[in-house]
Each structure stands twice: as structure tokens, then as C-alpha cells.
Specification:
The chain is α+β, with helices and mostly antiparallel strands. Helices cover 23% and strands 23% of the residues. The strands form 2 sheets. Strands 5, 6, 7, 8, 9, 10, 11, 12 and 13 form a 9-stranded mixed sheet that branches. It has a 4-stranded antiparallel sheet with strand order 2-1-3-4. Helix 1 crosses helix 2 (15-23) and helix 4 (116-123) packs across helix 7 (225-235). The longest helix is centred in the last third of the chain and has 11 residues, at 225-235. The radius of gyration is 21 Å and the shape is elongated. The two termini are 26 Å apart. 27% of the residues are buried. It binds uracil (URA).
């Protein structure tokens, strides 16, 4: 693989940033300063260091984003900015997409990846990957409504939701909802079917991933190696090797 391509696919630099760094002698391969950006390297075996930082080769990228309000969970939109607009250019060229959807005004944890197979598995209704949301409703919920929520509700289009969990805070109108599926506007529609309305919604976990408290709204980071291993395990629970 060409050195500049390697730096691009690892989201270390765009191709032009890579070329500039090579010209400035800021890239080494196996301890030698790289003379050319089109140098052929072995992405697995060769040790590439960019501006003093070793570059880890990865087949795929997994980005954890703290989604702010006002961004749509899509790769393109004619009207609103997409969550991809929150990433620097060296990531936007990688073909990342949101793994699942959050509404434009929903906040919190979003996984972005270019690993279609893993995303597909994580979103498959068969896997029952848990998603937890902090919520606030317009009116307090009764115990009887919470039981209906836990048993599964019939939405306005006749869809019967899988049992979901709801833990109420002492105010009776906020708390944590846990879903094992992800239908369009699901929580909002579940509350609507109880003649109530969501006024705040924030995803705080997705399978083994939890929203890190230090990640401010609009901020993102690559998954750590442990998080990446955990998400691959959640996508492939039957594969003991991962
Ligand atoms: N349920 C919703 O209604 N909206 C979201 O964004 C996520 C879950």
C-alpha cells in the first residue's frame, strides 16, 4: 500500500497533509525518514511514525460521538447538517456512516463506522442490543403506564413494541428507558401512545458502549481498543475468537 494511502485510511492525515508531512521529513518507516509519499509499505508489518506518533493500522474505524441537537443521523441531507459534519476532513473521506439513527433533536451517544457488517449485526432485531436513554416527559407516568411500557405497547401504526424497561426518577416524569430495538421515533411514539410527550431525550449507552462523561456535546473520539473489542463481541456473540 502507498504510504500516503496508509496515512489516509488510518485517518492520520488527508493525502495532501501526508504529502506535506513527508516533504517536511515528519514521517518515518521502520526508523528511516520516508523520502516519498508514494513509497510502498506493508501496512501490517512496517512501523510508520507520523510526527512522532506511531500509526496503528486498522481495517475499520469506530467513532464515538456525543451528538448535539440540530444534526441529522445520515451521510447526506439537503436541509440540515449531518453528524459527519462534526468530524475533520481526514475522517469524512473514509466512508463512515451512523450505526443507527437518533432524531435531529436527540442527544448523546452515536457510533459512526465504515464497518458495514458489524453495523448491520448490531442493528439486527435478532441481536437485541440494548440502548439506554435519559428522558424527560411532559407529564408524570403512573405505575400502570410503566407496566404497559415494560410489557410492550401498541403504537399508532399497530406495531407492538418489544418489552422495554423504564426506571422513573422520584419526580415521576424523568428517568432511564432501555430499548432492545430501534423503530423510527420509537420512544416518542411509545410516550404518545400513553397520551404523553417526550421533552428531552439523550442516549447514554449502546450495547457495551457508554457515553464518556468527559466527552462534551459535539465532541468525538475513536473507540479505545477495549471498546472496539467489546463492540465486535456484541456484534458477533457466537464468535469466541473476537
Ligand atoms: N426514540 C426516539 O423517539 N428518538 C430517538 O432519537 C431515539 C429513540
Amino acid at each position: 500500500m502507498r504510504l500516503d494511502k496508509f496515512l489516509s485510511v488510518t485517518a492520520t492525515a488527508t493525502r495532501s497533509e501526508a504529502a506535506r508531512a513527508v516533504r517536511a521529513h515528519r514521517v518515518t518507516v521502520n526508523g528511516e525518514v520516508a523520502a516519498r509519499a508514494d513509497l510502498s509499505i506493508d501496512p501490517i508489518r512496517d512501523r510508520v511514525v507520523f510526527g512522532g506518533t506511531p500509526v496503528r493500522y486498522r481495517a475499520h474505524h469506530y467513532i464515538l460521538l456525543n451528538k448535539p441537537s440540530g444534526y441529522v443521523s445520515a451521510t447526506e441531507d439537503g436541509k440540515d447538517p449531518t453528524v459527519l459534519a462534526l468530524l475533520p476532513e481526514k475522517y469524512t473521506v473514509l466512508g463512515l456512516f451512523p450505526c443507527g439513527r437518533l432524531d435531529k433533536n436527540t442527544l448523546g451517544l452515536m457510533l459512526l463506522t465504515d464497518d458495514g457488517d458489524t453495523a448491520h449485526r448490531l442493528l439486527s432485531p435478532r441481536r437485541h442490543v440494548e440502548k439506554r436513554y435519559l428522558f424527560r416527559a411532559e407529564h408524570p407516568l403512573t405505575e400502570e403506564e410503566c407496566s404497559r411500557f415494560r410489557q410492550g405497547l401498541v403504537l399508532e401504526d399497530g406495531y407492538e413494541t418489544k418489552p422495554a424497561d423504564i426506571e422513573l426518577a422520584p419526580d415521576g416524569m424523568s428517568g432511564v428507558i432501555t430499548l432492545v430495538e430501534g423503530k423510527y421515533h420509537q420512544i416518542k411514539r411509545m410516550l404518545q401512545s400513553l397520551d404523553n410527550r417526550i421533552t428531552y431525550l439523550e442516549r447514554i449507552s449502546f450495547g457495551p458502549l457508554t457515553l464518556p462523561p468527559e466527552l462534551s456535546r459535539g465532541e468525538w473520539r475513536e473507540l479505545t481498543e477495549e471498546e472496539e473489542a467489546a463492540i465486535l463481541r456484541a456484534a458477533n456473540p457466537e464468535n469466541k475468537e473476537i
